[in-house]
Amino acid sequence: MGSVSLKIGDGTARFRRTSVYSSAVNLLMLFSVVTTNLFALYAFSSHSQSSSHPLHHSNNISLVSQHLSLILREIDSSQRKLAQMEKQILGYESIDLSRPNIVPELKLFLHRHQLPLGKDSRTGITEMVSAVGHSCERSPDLLSQYMSYKVFDRCPDDWSLGQKLILRGCEPLPRRRCLAKTIGSDCVGCLDLGTEKDRFVKVKGKNDFLVDDVLGLANGKIRIGFDVSGGSGTFAARMAERNVTVITNALNNGGPFSEFIAARGVFPLFLSLDHRFPFHDNVFDLVHGSSGLDVEGKPEKMEFLMFDLDRVLKPGGLFWLDNFYCASDVKKKELTRLIERFGYKKLKWVIGEKADGQVNLSAVLQKPVRV
Ligand SMILES: *[C@@H]1O[C@H](CO)[C@@H](O)[C@H](O)[C@H]1NC(C)=O
Ligand SMILES: *[C@@H]1O[C@H](CO)[C@@H](O)[C@H](O)[C@H]1NC(C)=O
Ligand SMILES: *[C@@H]1O[C@H](CO)[C@@H](O)[C@H](O)[C@H]1NC(C)=O
């Protein structure tokens, strides 16, 4: 039955306007399904009554098969109408909820919920819709596996399954009603910080800038920042020592990064870079990012990401591109062209030593005021 286009979620419940009209349509459809089925039944039974003579009946195979195919067509069209109705009632069009292996918890999650007091006069909405990543539809089996759990019980030990879904674009995840387990004690020391200790405070190469130098470029006006693909949160930890709040975005790829970042007293944001950042426009004084910005090495992915980073950065705010690895001259040119299209002022721009055509680019760029 139909394909479904899930509302692309932004991590929170979403709202949708409806009207009394849609429930009237549903009733009408229910009526038409019932009547067509009754008609099919009647066609079948009236024929068996009128052709009670066994000889006549068995001789006219073509008549019987005609009736049979009519009935089959009716059943088929009723099923299609029912699926259509289910879609309308649930409000989702891209996840095929009529598949046999879709678990009830997923259907319940996706069900629209009417506001108890009717239409909200301020927003004009009448119901709440849960958001789930539209790409979840591409992994229905993983999704059903993920949504098979006991409500109010401990969540299954399957965080890697959730992350697998996220990396397939299934974000936000629909699981809500189980209790996260307590994992061992906190995670300080569970990742090796050996090589991280001196980052941002000691220079190793000409591509490394010091946090104090970069903060100095903004005359002390930096209060809040965002670190993209920030690994273990070292950047945020160094900035916290300077009274700057930094949110670190990281997935748990290859280690419990979120827990580790949180254990250092800084804010972990568990979100893939395909997601639009859950921040309003113009909120950060600083955005810091490195080669992790180069999502899958695809220029168009990086462009989408750059636009979103630009969006959350304040006018006059700094974009610190830190040791962005360019595997070739073409890559470097591509990146330079992309950056220049945003019209940022280059406060620092350092291209590292070239080795086999590979080079690192570091820059501090200032977002212009646009009116
Ligand atoms: C079978 O039914 C068809 C359609 O009603 C009719 O045209 C045909 O003459 C019948 N054949 C026999 C052998 O009864
Ligand atoms: C951070 O803030 C505290 C409390 O306001 C202040 O005592 C300290 O000097 C500040 N540190 C820096 C590096 O600005
Ligand atoms: C280039 O940057 C990567 C991280 O993006 C880093 O691992 C590497 O050491 C850097 N290379 C040089 C020569 O600075």
TrEMBL record:
Task: Provide the transmembrane region boundaries.
Answer: 20-44
Its subcellular locations are: Endomembrane system; Membrane
Q: Tell me how this protein sits in the membrane.
A: Single-pass membrane protein; Single-pass type II membrane protein
The GO cellular component terms are: endomembrane system; membrane
Record keywords, A-Z: Coiled coil, Glycoprotein, Membrane, Methyltransferase, Signal-anchor, Transferase, Transmembrane, Transmembrane helix
The keyword Manganese belongs to this UniProt entry's keyword annotation? no
Query: Annotated Gene Ontology MF terms?
Result: methyltransferase activity
Q: Which family does it belong to?
A: Belongs to the methyltransferase superfamily.
- The entry's protein name is BnaA09g01920D protein
> What gene name does this entry carry?
BnaA09g01920D
